[in-house]
Amino acid sequence: MVFMSGNNRNSNLSGCLFVIAAAVLWGTTGTSQALAPAASTPQEIGALRLLVGGVLLAGYSLARNRKSFKRVSVVQGVAGGIFVAAYQLCFFWGVSLTGVAVGTMVGIGSAPVFAGILDSLLFRRQPSARWYLSTGLALAGCLFLTLSESIEIHIIGIILSAGAGLSYALYAICMKKMLASATAETVAATIFCFGALFLFPFLAGADLSWVLLPNGLLVTIHLGLFATAVSYVFFCKGLGRISVPTAVTLSLAEPLTAGLLGVLVIGERLSAAGWLGLSLILSGLVILARPVSKSVLSKVQDKEHG
After folding, report:
1. 96 within a domain of the structure (yes/no)
2. Which of 107, 146, 153, 294 can bridge 164 by disulfide, Cβ–Cβ 3.0-4.6 Å?
3. Which of 58-67, 160-169, 266-275 comes out lowest in average pLDDT?
């Protein structure tokens, strides 16, 4: 097996950093929903997020590289749009039923498991031992972080949040496939525009007057611009350089960010279990993202790339 070059090691690290940057932006999503006007609904928030993000991404991509859209697979774009629309509905609805903490943990925590299973079933690739270790640590951290909250288990909310995790893994696979022929911003724009189209019925005839309220407008802009447009350009750039299971595991920086924001911005208090959970998530991310030696890379390149 051929040793991986220094350039490829740098590409792997930059890919990890791009995905972590995206996940940090996603970590603000649940809190943003909680700050939205009471008149808003999970379906409206999810649809508006895709609509605003998709339009911004399309404009940015057309300005940068109009020809890239000619290389996009429509079938893969439609499939990705279906899964990303399903993610919005499942995530925001699940969070509304079972709470931000549990909804976010189940949604993002289940995604790496689904990604590993799908990668194995669809592409006959087994994740590396390092992926298992880092994913196990991060998932344990999610569990401790969830247990640190005063929670009520809502079974429908849990199922919906797990559905969000499965949808996430599926649209990440679609993105990975599309990146073979199109730019990161074009892939993100295509999938999110199709997703917005599928969710448009939730906006047709809806009372969206809450969007014009100061907090409604800020939440809509934040979710569309930062938590969607910017974050998914980062995610696609990273996904083009690392495997789907690795990218989805690194997305566990999302609950890490959400937990820290709760403490630093909202003034929440974390128990010892909560701080342990954050530490375990951070440890898992560091293990997965850190550069490794040539000898180790040569053994796992088929599993971590492609």
Report:
1. yes
2. 107
3. 266-275
Separation CA 252–CA 135 (nearest Å):
9
Chain segment 143-174, per-residue pLDDT in tens: 787 776 656 668 898 889 889 999 999 999 99
Full residue range of the structural domain in which residue 134 is found? 11-304
pLDDT of 245 strictly over 80? yes
The single residue listed with the structure tokens 């003034």 is 267
d(CA 159, CA 110): 11
Query: Does residue 5 belong to any structural domain of this protein?
Result: no
